[in-house]
Specification:
- The longest helix is centred in the middle third of the chain and has 12 residues.
- A hairpin with a 2-residue loop joins strand 2 and strand 3.
- Helices cover about 20% and strands about 30% of the residues.
- Strands 5, 6, 7, 8, 9, 10, 11, 12, 13, 14 and 15 form an eleven-stranded mixed beta sheet that branches. The protein has a four-stranded antiparallel beta sheet with strand order 1-4-2-3.
- It is of the alpha+beta class.
- The chain is elongated and about 80 Å long.
């Protein structure tokens, strides 16, 4: 005999589909026969093969052990690293401090070890996610470039992902960045406005002071936290969120980021001094994540700050 308590990610599946995905040695004909004989039940009651399971349902199979052997599973994500810096976690989401050099999603070079694979392994080993039995796969609500570090939000269920996507788009989740730029800023604080145009083929953007065809308005607010003769440490609040906005906008005003080989002066360098260090939830309407409203989360032990204090930026 085996029993399963249906979790949120398993909800919505048919009884027969759930059983097929779970057991290797249970023939379909036998499964349908045992359902008819009431040896497979949902919530202690007779069920049908096409009955949909709901969160909290109890599925019980009163069958011999030899046909109730669970499938042997081999997943690529189990080869991913277990190195995961979790800032916050609850039943709906994870806030992860992604380190510089780690990809958010797989590519041709790093198919196995990337942030989403590490998250899948973590949730699988915790028993919160079963890839063969869940309709939803853990997903990232935002992304950060490989060579930038900072807070990434991972959703554990579809409803959370939809809310996060909507809130990020309407800027009800605010992200703050740290950047080290060349030189001293003329103003302690300023809000910059310009226009950004993206070249999709080259994956590069250009910034101009005046609007042009295909260009989108960008607004970047910065505050100088500290400086020395050749470098300034800035906190940046993106009032618009465009591709490479911080890097391109700061370079446009003559203060490129250290380590930026694309928009700065350091040809061949590709580890720009940029970190998404703080995140704040600022919801305008009630939703299932409202318990996070007005809460702020911040990363610590950021190498960028350490390097700045040691005046390594020259």
């Amino acid at each position: 005999m085996k029993s399963f308590r249906i979790n949120e990610n398993d909800s919505g599946q048919r009884v027969d589909r759930f059983i097929e995905k779970t057991f290797d040695h249970l023939p379909k004909s036998l499964m349908y026969k045992e359902i008819r004989k009431k040896n497979i039940k949902v919530n202690k009651k007779r069920c049908t093969p096409d009955q949909h399971l709901n969160t909290g349902d109890l599925l019980e199979l009163y069958l011999k052990d030899d046909v109730l052997k669970c499938k042997q599973k081999h997943y690529d994500f189990m080869k991913a690293s277990t190195d995961l810096d979790i800032i916050y976690e609850d039943k709906n989401l994870l806030l992860i401090d992604k380190k510089v050099g780690v990809l958010c999603h797989p590519d041709s070079r790093d198919y196995i070890d990337n942030l989403i694979s590490r998250i899948k392994r973590y949730l699988y080993e915790k028993g919160e996610w079963e890839p063969d039995n869940c309709l939803f796969t853990p997903s990232l609500a935002n992304r950060i470039d490989r060579n930038t570090g900072g807070i990434v939000i991972a959703a554990k269920n579809m409803q959370t992902l939809q809310i996060l996507n909507s809130m990020l788009k309407s800027r009800q989740i605010k992200k703050y960045y740290l950047a080290v730029v060349r030189g001293k800023m003329e103003k302690k604080q300023d809000t910059l406005t310009a226009y950004l145009k993206k070249d999709e083929q080259r994956n590069i953007v250009t910034v101009t002071d005046k609007p042009s065809e295909g260009a989108k308005k960008i607004v970047t607010k910065y505050t100088v936290l500290d400086c020395y003769d050749k470098a300034s440490l800035l906190e940046i609040d993106l009032l618009t969120g465009r591709t490479h906005q911080i890097r391109a906008h700061m370079a446009h005003i003559g203060h490129p980021l250290f380590g930026d080989g694309k928009y700065g002066t350091e040809t061949g360098r590709n580890r720009q001094a940029l970190y998404s260090f703080k995140l704040k939830f600022n919801f305008r309407d009630e939703n299932s994540l409202s318990y996070l409203n007005n809460k702020e989360f911040e990363t610590h032990n950021i190498e960028l700050i350490k390097n700045f204090k040691e005046k390594k930026y020259r």
